[in-house]
């Protein structure tokens, strides 16, 4: 596939003002008639040919202003339609195509999921429905008529408001017409047709508009949709309160389907969801499922303003809608739940998904400047790092100026397809500051490393902080510039007291935020009456790796006393990681390193004294860094087996030391209250289950007994899954019995069976490879359903470091085989699975060679999709 470059952007030669679509839904031959009103774009080239995109289309009929076109006036293929000399005035094009929704295994364009017709058009799926200028800067007003058999599809949904509906007597068919008054790009187009169960309510906006909000799910699953409906109403209220943004149509529909390539899609007025992010009940969803549902419902709803009302000029600007919308959904969840715990969870995700990406062959800037396949750029960098960049803006400018900038953005760019420059210009104007240097965050890939050292001078009562930053090279970017980093900080004195921050006048420090924008600097603080412990990057104020010369003792002071809960957690994590890295080294020479006495004491004190007060936070503290966290910190010549041994040993030794406290906590947290999915109840479950996991590490027999009891007695999926996860780590009949019981209980529900598949795929034992191969033959498994593929294969490749990275290369081979098999069916999911190889260069040489061979085998295969070709080539690059 050719390379598309940001610098080559130019406006289209033609515009499409209105689109009238007519769908005649049929499982195998759906006829689509599109009436497009076009005109030359004043910003385009005069007399240019009209080049419409297509993908696997069949053209039945083509007319210009009502008249069939001469055969030599156009060229048509499944991949495009070109009018050689279109009129240089407004004209109408009528295009009739047919598509086969049942045969559509790519799940892009119009497809069927469990008999339900639905669409996915982002990024370039609309061209699989009709020929079109399929790019985000072409905004049109859509009217959509959908016709279908009443029996098959009693519910017919489209974008916008319902304009008409009726029966077609004698045919068994009916139709509905939808009109969307808001001009939009084709990627936001959607229709749905099928038999669905609905939950709905009337939502009244702050200005009094009554909106019918509804969630539609597969038949029989209505009870599992109420939580999502509640989350939707809360999201709508929050966006009014926090951003002043109101909804703008009479209806808002959410449809959940079971075959979906991604989490969900923000189509205007008609969000379509992977049912994993809608369906929840006490017996079927874990607390993290509830939290994810709330977050994804909010995310897609928030796109209505950040993405839909203001869209992207081109796909290079993807982070304009995605980073900003992730930031908004993070803030929403922080307000609805616990802000520090949400921040910790988000930073864990950022490090696990984005830092890894940034450190490997697939690294790219938040705003990439070239791509071959845009679907491969819906990444953690665009989404999560994109959100961090928006967060830094807010931290730097303060809440009020940030809100002013957002208001300006909404006011000025509403109804347009905008760029990152447009976005930043609003904050520059609102603050009166230049953001030119700051904008490098969008252009420069890689995770900066911030190094800090501090010097206290008792005599002058000054504290000097030396800061340095550098960013390692990434593909295509050997040289890196210093970036603008907001460093939220404090100097922590006796008892956790924040000492006043008095600096020289020219130091940019506001509300405890230091702006660091050079390669190196020194900041001197005056009137520092005692030797402080610096607490830097409070709340993780910049997405960087940092290395500070604090002793374990100093870090444990921050753990027990910092006023910033994020840094409390961070401090103890840093100590744990340090000891785990040393432990890994020790394992390689056949030794074992116990955790330091001080660490054990600090954790014991914390667990005994404070854990219960904020259970969700305590659960985060008591969850050790993962094997992947340790591997990332080690960074090269990684031996996953040594990491696993070191982590196991550390977990066992810590747990042994904490055992009496853990047992007491375990009893205290036992709850007899009725189940509620709220954050504080979830926090208590999380802590109790983290405790169970540790008890099992210290005393497997007791752990197995407790977990088996918990599994059998569980009245909710969180406890059931946590118990099963603990059992899964203890080989023997106990675990196999529990796994069999789970399969028998939930055999009828693939979404729940995904948990069972994923859990087994992540067991860190050599037998897991055969287990995974066996599960691929299980009746519940099918490669064509993205959730199944991700649960089994994705969890194995991304969530089982020792077994995916097996020294004999069999883990790599399994993934390569699956990717090659899946690619012809669903290239997007195949390419996504293949990104598991992004860490291959970090491995020790033996494993590295095996990984390279497997990747090369994929790259050398014939007939690969653009998606897989691109990932394979960049991974090897
Ligand atoms: N915008 C969609 C993602 C589309 C992915 C296309 N490959 C969901 C979201 O980010 O909200
Ligand atoms: Zn999004």
From TrEMBL:
One GO term of the biological process aspect: proteolysis
Limits of the Peptidase M1 alanyl aminopeptidase C-terminal domain: 552-876
Enzyme Commission number, as recorded: 3.4.11.2
Cofactor(s) this protein requires: Zn(2+)
GO MF assignments: alanyl aminopeptidase activity; metallopeptidase activity; zinc ion binding
PANTHER family tied to this protein: PUROMYCIN-SENSITIVE AMINOPEPTIDASE (PTHR46322)
Protein name (Swiss-Prot/TrEMBL): Aminopeptidase N
Species the sequence originates in: Chelatococcus reniformis
């Amino acid at each position: 596939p050719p390379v598309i470059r940001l610098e080559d952007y130019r406006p289209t030669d033609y515009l499409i003002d209105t689109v009238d679509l007519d769908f005649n839904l049929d499982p195998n031959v759906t006829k689509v008639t599109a009436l497009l009103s076009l005109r030359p774009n004043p910003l385009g080239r005069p007399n240019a040919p009209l080049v419409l995109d297509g993908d696997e289309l069949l053209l039945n009929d083509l007319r210009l202003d009502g008249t069939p076109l001469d055969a030599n006036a156009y060229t048509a293929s499944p991949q495009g339609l070109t009018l050689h000399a279109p009129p240089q005035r407004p004209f109408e094009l009528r295009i009739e195509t047919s598509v086969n929704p049942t045969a559509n295994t790519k799940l892009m364009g119009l497809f069927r999921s469990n008999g339900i017709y639905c669409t996915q058009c982002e990024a370039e799926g609309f061209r699989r429905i009709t020929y079109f200028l399929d790019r985000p800067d072409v905004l049109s007003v859509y009217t959509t008529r959908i016709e279908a058999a009443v029996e098959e599809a009693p519910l017919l949904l489209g974008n916008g408001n319902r304009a008409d509906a009726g029966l077609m007597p004698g045919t068994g068919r009916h139709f509905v017409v939808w009109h969307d008054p808001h001009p939009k790009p084709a990627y936001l187009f959607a229709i749905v047709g099928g038999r669905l169960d609905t939950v709905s309510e009337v939502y009244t906006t702050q200005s009094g508009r009554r909106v019918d909000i509804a969630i539609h799910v597969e038949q029989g699953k209505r009870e599992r949709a109420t939580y999502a409906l509640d989350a939707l109403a809360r999201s709508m209220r929050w966006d009014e309160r926090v951003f002043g943004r109101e909804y703008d149509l009479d209806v808002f529909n959410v449809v959940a389907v079971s075959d979906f390539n991604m989490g969900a899609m923000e189509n205007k007025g008609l969000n379509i969801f992977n049912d994993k992010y809608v369906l929840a009940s006490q017996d079927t969803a874990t607390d993290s499922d509830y939290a994810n549902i709330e977050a994804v419902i909010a995310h897609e709803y928030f796109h209505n303003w950040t993405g839909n009302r203001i869209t992207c000029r081109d796909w290079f600007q993807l982070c304009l809608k995605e980073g900003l919308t992730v930031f908004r959904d993070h803030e929403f969840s922080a307000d609805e739940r616990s802000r520090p715990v949400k921040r910790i969870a988000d930073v864990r995700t950022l490090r696990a998904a984005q830092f890894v990406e940034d450190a490997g062959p697939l690294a790219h800037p938040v705003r990439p400047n070239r791509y071959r396949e845009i679907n491969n750029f819906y990444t953690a960098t665009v989404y999560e790092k994109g959100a961090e960049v928006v967060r830094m803006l807010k931290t730097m400018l303060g809440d009020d100026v940030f809100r002013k900038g957002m208001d300006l953005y909404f006011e000025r760019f509403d109804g347009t397809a905008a760029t990152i420059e447009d976005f930043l210009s609003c904050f520059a104007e609102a603050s009166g500051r230049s953001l030119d240097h700051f904008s490098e965050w969008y252009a420069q890939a890689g995770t900066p490393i911030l190094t800090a050292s501090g010097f206290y001078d008792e005599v002058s009562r000054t504290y000097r902080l030396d800061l340095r930053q550098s960013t390692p090279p990434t593909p295509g970017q050997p040289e890196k510039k210093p970036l603008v980093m907001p460093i939220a900080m404090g100097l922590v004195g006796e008892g956790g007291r924040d000492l006043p921050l008095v600096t020289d006048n020219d130091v940019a420090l506001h509300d405890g935020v230091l702006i660091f924008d050079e390669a190196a600097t020194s900041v001197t603080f005056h009137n520092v009456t005692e030797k402080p412990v610096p607490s830097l990057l409070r709340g993780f104020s910049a997405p960087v790796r940092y290395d500070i010369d604090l002793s374990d003792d100093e870090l444990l002071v921050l753990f027990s006393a910092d006023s910033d809960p994020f840094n409390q957690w961070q401090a103890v994590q840093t100590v744990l990681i340090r000891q785990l890295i040393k432990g890994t080294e020790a394992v390689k020479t056949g030794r074992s390193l116990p955790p330091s006495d001080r660490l054990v004491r600090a954790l014991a004190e914390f667990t005994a004294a404070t854990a219960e007060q904020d259970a969700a936070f305590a659960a985060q503290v008591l969850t050790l860094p993962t094997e992947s966290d340790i591997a990332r910190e080690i960074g090269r010549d990684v031996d996953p087996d040594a990491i696993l041994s070191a982590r196991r040993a550390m977990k066992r030794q810590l747990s042994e030391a904490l055992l009496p406290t853990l047992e007491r906590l375990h009893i205290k947290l036992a709850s007899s209250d009725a189940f509620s999915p709220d954050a504080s109840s979830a926090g208590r479950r999380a802590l109790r289950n983290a405790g169970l996991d540790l008890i099992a590490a210290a005393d497997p027999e007791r752990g197995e007994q407790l977990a088996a009891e918990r599994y059998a007695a569980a009245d909710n999926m969180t406890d059931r899954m946590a118990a099963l996860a603990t059992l899964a780590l203890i080989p023997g009949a106990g675990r196999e019995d529990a796994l069999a019981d789970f399969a028998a209980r939930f055999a009828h529900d693939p979404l729940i069976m995904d948990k069972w598949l994923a859990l087994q795929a992540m067991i860190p034992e050599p037998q897991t490879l055969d287990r995974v191969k066996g599960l691929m033959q299980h009746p519940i498994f099918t490669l064509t359903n993205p959730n199944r593929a991700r649960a089994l294969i994705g969890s194995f490749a991304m969530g089982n470091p020792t077994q995916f990275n097996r020294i004999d290369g069999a883990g790599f081979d399994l993934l390569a085989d699956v990717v090659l098999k899946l690619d012809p069916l669903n290239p997007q999911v195949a390419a996504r699975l293949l990104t598991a190889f992004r860490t291959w260069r970090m491995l020790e040489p033996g494993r590295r060679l095996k990984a390279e061979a497997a990747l090369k085998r994929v790259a050398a295969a014939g007939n690969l999709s653009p998606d897989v070709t691109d990932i394979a080539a960049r991974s090897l690059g």
